[in-house]
Design a protein that fits this description.
Layout: H1 3-16, H2 19-25, H3 30-44, H4 60-88, E1 91-96, H5 101-113, E2 118-123, H6 125-133, E3 139-143, E4 151-159, E5 186-188, H7 195-207, E6 215-217, H8 221-228, E7 234-237, H9 239-245, E8 248-251, E9 257-265, H10 272-286
Parallel strand pairs: 1-2, 1-3, 5-6, 5-7
Antiparallel strand pairs: 3-9, 4-7, 4-8, 4-9
Length: 298
């Protein structure tokens, strides 16, 4: 039985002292209102109206119950109001600060078509963590190892010139003996300055015999890209970033690296419903692609 609907019919009929008028005020037909009130009486095992009167008159039980029925309707109306407000409250989502405005705008638009009001807050990995902990956002795309990720994106090295190889091996960047040319550097952007990407790369740098300064972290993507453009330096980046910057991208020869992202909520609630709904939209924004189109084959 619809308890709220039955109480609404009961209150409306008792207030207007007419089944016909009360039913219409409640948006019901008279037979439906009568059936709902009868069901309520059956559940409560007491009559609410005198059946012998020419117009609806409350029984003593009905008069006693009427205030409680009104409170139930007020609570139900308040619940529906709060639900509407909560449904309109935007999801503030912290996202990587590396995507073009067009990609972020498309994410917001795609989310809107899926019934999610989304606001994006671009930030570096540490900034996204801070936004999440201070609850300035409701969720964040956090950088995680690929085996913990819902979305992954391959990383490789991109330069301003075609390297003429299918993969870039770090030992090819080792300065030659007696060379006067400055050693070639690999530039990291803040998005990749996280332990599960930076630490393996540092170990690989040392194993390949490169100088410590040959692996450098820039304060932002623009600075890192500027160091690469017009030089022989390389940028650690994804294939979509390389295309956007007009750079030639190749995978690393010694080590498969990838960015991984997981959706984390500020209140530690289950992110799965939102993640499932927005999975494809977020994938498009991040630039994840089928393996065949991620870059040159091995």
């Amino acid at each position: 039985m619809d308890l709220v609907g039955a109480c609404r019919a009961f209150v409306s009929v008792s207030t207007r002292e007419s089944f016909t008028v009360g039913a219409a005020a409640a948006g019901l037909s008279q037979p439906v209102a009568s059936r709902r009130i009868a069901a309520l009486e059956q559940r409560l095992q007491q009559p609410l109206f005198e059946r012998t009167a020419r117009r609806p008159e409350l029984t003593a039980f009905g008069r006693d119950l009427l205030p409680a029925a009104r409170r139930l309707l007020e609570a139900a109306d308040a619940l529906e109001h709060e639900a509407r407000i909560a449904g309109r409250r935007p999801w503030r989502l912290a996202v990587p600060a590396i995507h073009p405005t067009a990609a972020l705008a498309r994410l917001v638009a795609d989310a809107r078509t899926l019934g999610v009001a989304l606001e994006v807050r671009p930030a570096a990995p540490a900034g996204r963590t801070e936004l999440l902990h201070t609850q300035q956002v409701r969720a964040a795309l956090q950088a995680v190892p690929p085996d913990e990720a819902a979305w992954t994106l391959p990383l490789g090295l991109a330069g301003d010139h075609d390297p003429g190889v299918r993969r870039v091996h770090l030992d090819s960047l080792r300065p030659g003996r007696g060379s006067e040319a400055p050693p070639r550097r690999i530039w990291l952007q803040p998005e990749d300055d996280v332990p599960h990407i930076r630490d393996p790369l540092v170990r690989l740098r040392d194993a390949a015999g490169l100088q410590p300064a040959q692996l450098a972290t820039a304060p932002d993507l623009a600075t890192a890209a500027a160091e690469v453009l017009g030089s022989r330096d390389l940028l650690l980046c994804s294939p979509p970033q390389a295309r956007e910057l007009g750079l030639d991208w190749r995978p690393l020869g010694e080590l498969p690296l990838a960015r991984g992202y997981a959706l984390i909520t500020a209140d530690h609630s289950n992110p799965q419903p939102l993640q499932t709904r927005l999975h494809d939209a977020i994938a498009r924004c991040l630039g994840t692609e089928p393996a065949a189109s991620r870059g040159p084959a091995a």
